[in-house]
Each structure stands twice: as C-alpha cells, then as structure tokens.
Write a structure and sequence with these properties.
The protein has about 325 residues and is mostly beta strands. It is built from one helix and 21 strands.
Length: about 325
C-alpha cells in the first residue's frame, strides 16, 4: 500500500502537474487608428494561470523553465525521520507497538521544460511544452523490535528522460474593454517512461475556461476546468493577480487548487494478527475518496531588454496531501518575437 501510494503520488506530482503558462508576456493588437501594432497590457502575466488574450496574429514566444524539489512529506508523515511506519504489531494491553517496520526516503525531482506558443490569429493561439525530467530516490527499510533497530534493506535509483509532452490551443471568445473570456484545451501525450515514473502511459485531456481583467498595470485572471485521463481525473481552479510595479518589472501571486480523484492519503488500519493471540497488526492502506491539492505561488518577472523576460517564483503547499516539498523554486526565461 505504501509503495502504491508513493508511486501514484510521484506520478501525480511529476506527470500531471500544471506546466508553465502558454501565454506570452507580451500581448499585441493592431491599433486601427494608427495602423501599427501596440501592446495591450503593461503586465507580463502570471506563471501558471492562463490569461484570456492571446499574443496576437503572427506573434510567437518560446521559453524554458527549470525547477528542482526535494519531497520531504507524504501526507502528514515525514519521509526522512522514520515516522513513515508501514507495519506495526501491538499487544492489546500495551500502549505502544513492540514491532514496527518503517521507511526513510529521499526523493528529488528536477525538470527543464521547453515551451512555446504562436498566434495563428488575434483570437487563436497554439502551443506546446516538452518536459525533460530527472528523478532520484534513496531509501531504507528499518525494523524495530522491542527498541532494537535492524536495517532490513536499502537502495537507490535514478531515471531521466522526456516526460509527457503537452499540446495546447486557446481561443478568445469575447473581449469587451478590459475584460476577456477564452477557452483552452491541452492534450498530454504518453511520451514519458511509465516504468521509471517519468510518464503516465495514458493520454490526458484538459479543458479550461479563462477569464481576465487587464486594466493598465493591474491584471486579474481566473481559470476553471477539468482533466480526463492521464494518471487521474481531476477538477482544477486557479486565480492570479499581477501588477506591473514599473514598466520592466511585474510581480504576481497565484493560487492553484486541484481535486485529484485517484490520489488518497494513507492511514494505518488494524486487524487481529493471524497467528499471535492478543496482538493487532496495523498496516498502511489508502483512505477512501480523492484528495485536494493546493499551492500558492509568488514571483517576479523582469524584462531585461527588448522582449526577453526572466522570471523567478516560489511555490508553497497549503495542504499536506500526497508528496509535498517545503518550497519549490523555479527560474524561467522567455523570448517573444
């Protein structure tokens, strides 16, 4: 049960996580009075939350983002201090178990994601994202009997390669003044190595509704949608606020919420020991129902020169479900032309 839960949590975190937004930092529209293209917003947008407007006809952007994170918790259990007990035996007249088996794990994932988008028309945009991933894992299984520890097994492994490629499309349905509404779709291709936890092995489809309010230096964005296929069906909601504190610098804050149907927390469930009278055996089993994941993201985008933008942000988990890291730093580079 512990192995299955950790595997599924890894796949949820590594293969179905939101990728960098396909929206370009620079949005352009034709000014009919001047007959020239001009920027429609002063903000460079958010990191994960999509904006309703596209980059503009004939406008393209590409970029790369990098992050690394060390997972330190599985739900409420610390992966590194031995508190992840998988099996325990306890006499019913004693308060503490006399025999336990536990895991210590050190799990780290790193990813370089290449992404790009192209404005087919002023209202229609296509894009793609290619994640390159590396996963490392080290662990030990420790048995403690009547206070005496015994190392049962230890091991380490690593894997690297292409993750599941994402193909995207976005269409702006309506625009009135500073507000706009769009729909977007994303297909995840099963290009990652499923056996080495780099891919889900299944197609996934994401459908998204996008609303934006972009007024001068201030922008608000809201996303809501669902995912079918992949590692799990899910509902997702996200919101972002960004402000251009000066012409070349934008700061943003984002909230990402996902309801994942196939991710469950672990719980110890007891049953009478099959051969020893008066002893209960506790084993890890998945809790029923899905799990809600929530993260907050805070970051800054800096227009170094021309249309070259450097972004950096930190992501923090708001709830302890699945595998979590205390903080996830990310650096992204983007160029529009």
């Amino acid at each position: 049960a512990a192995g299955d839960a950790i595997t599924r949590a890894l796949l949820v975190n590594l293969t179905s996580m939101p990728l960098a937004s396909s929206s370009s930092g620079f949005l352009y529209r034709l000014n009919p009075q001047l007959g020239t293209m001009e920027r429609t917003t002063e903000s460079f947008g958010s990191f994960f939350v999509e904006r309703a407007l596209t980059a503009g006809e004939g406008r393209a952007s590409f970029g790369v983002s990098f992050f690394t994170r060390g997972f330190n918790r599985l739900g409420d259990l610390d992966l590194r201090d031995g508190s992840l007990v998988t099996v325990a035996n306890r006499f019913r007249d004693e308060a503490m178990p006399f025999d336990t088996e536990g895991l210590t794990l050190r799990v780290r994932s790193s990813s370089v994601t290449l992404f790009g988008s192209y404005g087919v028309t002023d209202d229609f945009e296509i894009g793609a994202a290619l994640p390159l991933m590396r996963l490392t894992l080290e662990g030990e299984r420790l048995n403690v009997y009547r206070g005496d520890p015994f190392l049962q097994a230890s091991g380490e492994a690593s894997a690297s390669g292409i993750g599941d490629i994402a193909l995207r499309a976005k269409y702006t349905l309506a625009q009135a003044g500073a507000g706009a509404f769009a729909v977007a779709g994303e297909v995840r291709l099963p290009t990652g190595d499923e056996e080495n936890l780099l891919g889900t092995g299944e197609f996934g489809v994401r459908v998204l509704g996008i609303g934006s309010l972009e007024r001068g230096r201030f922008t608000l964005h809201g996303n809501g949608g669902f995912v079918l296929g992949g590692i799990s069906d899910e509902l997702n909601f996200a919101g972002a606020a960004a402000v251009a504190v000066q012409p070349r610098v934008t700061v943003s804050g984002e909230l990402l919420v996902r309801r994942v149907s196939e991710l469950a927390d672990l719980q110890l469930v007891s049953a009478p020991h099959p051969t020893i009278a008066g002893v209960d055996t506790f084993r890890l089993t998945p809790a029923p129902g899905g799990t809600t994941l929530a993260n907050v993201v805070a970051g800054v985008k800096w227009n170094v020169e021309g249309t070259f933008v450097i972004g950096a942000h930190l992501a923090f988990p708001l709830v302890r479900h699945g595998l979590t890291a205390t903080v996830v730093p990310t650096i992204a580079l983007e160029y529009s032309f």
